[in-house]
């Protein structure tokens, strides 16, 4: 059963896609740019969905856009990064300042994971897909989702606690 992606419903998934993008990029600013670029590509022409939910399709499109950007960045000259102190911007929705720092640290740890682990962790823990939905969106088996998710969670815990993965 084929149907077109409804552009009017894209806003329903904005928060989940933003969190997924943040986990992929490790930076709030880059996540905003990634979501904007993904939506621009999706809205450029009508999209047909084949037996998929909107969120799974959007997550895959977000991931593909991220990978394309990384591929393009590797071909360009890299500017000198800003000092680390400038990256600590408070989250206005965080109830306490330390929660914003913890969130930034967590997203940075997720972004540092190997691609396979990061994709599964973003799909399940950040975006909220079920194992079955994540398997369908990432085109892998459900058992693979579970094993990669377990190992990804272990690596994130080690990174956040100060160890190396």
Distance between the termini: 43 Å
Quote the beta fraction: under 5%
In the predicted model, the low-confidence regions spanning at least 5 consecutive residues are none
Largest sheet: 2 strands, antiparallel
Report the helical percentage: 55-70%
Element order, helices and strands? EHHEHHHHH
Q: Give the spatial strand order of the biggest sheet.
A: 1-2
Oligomer: single chain
What's the total count of β strands?
Answer: 2
Mean pLDDT: 85
In DSSP terms, counting alpha (H) and pi (I) runs of 4 or more, how many helices? Answer: 7
Structural shape: globular
Determine Rg (CA atoms, Å). Answer: 16 Å
Helix/sheet category: mainly alpha
Describe the fold and architecture:
The chain contains seven helices and two strands. The protein is mainly alpha-helical. A two-stranded antiparallel ribbon has the order 1-2. The radius of gyration is 16 Å and the shape is globular.
Question: What keywords describe this structure?
Answer:
two-stranded antiparallel sheet, 62% helix, 165 residues, mainly alpha
Note the topology.
Elements: E1 2-4, H1 14-25, H2 28-43, E2 48-50, H3 54-74, H4 97-111, H5 115-126, H6 131-138, H7 142-160
Antiparallel strand pairs: 1-2
Compose a concise summary of this entry.
The protein is 62% helix and 4% strand.
């Amino acid at each position: 059963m084929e149907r077109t992606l409804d552009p009017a419903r894209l806003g329903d998934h904005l928060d989940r896609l933003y969190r997924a993008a943040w986990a992929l990029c490790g930076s709030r600013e880059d996540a905003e740019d990634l979501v904007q670029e993904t939506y621009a590509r999706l809205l450029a022409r009508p999209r047909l969905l084949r037996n998929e939910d909107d969120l799974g399709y959007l997550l895959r499109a977000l991931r593909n856009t991220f990978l394309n950007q990384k591929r393009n960045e590797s071909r360009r000259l890299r500017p000198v990064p800003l000092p680390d102190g400038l990256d600590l911007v408070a989250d206005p929705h965080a109830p306490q300042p330390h929660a914003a720092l913890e969130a930034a640290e967590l997203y940075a740890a997720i972004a540092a994971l190997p691609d396979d682990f990061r994709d599964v962790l973003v799909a399940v823990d950040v975006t909220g897909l079920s194992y079955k939905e994540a398997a369908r969106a990432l085109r892998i088996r459900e058992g693979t989702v579970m094993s990669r998710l377990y190992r990804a969670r272990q690596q994130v815990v080690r990174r956040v606690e100060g160890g190396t993965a």
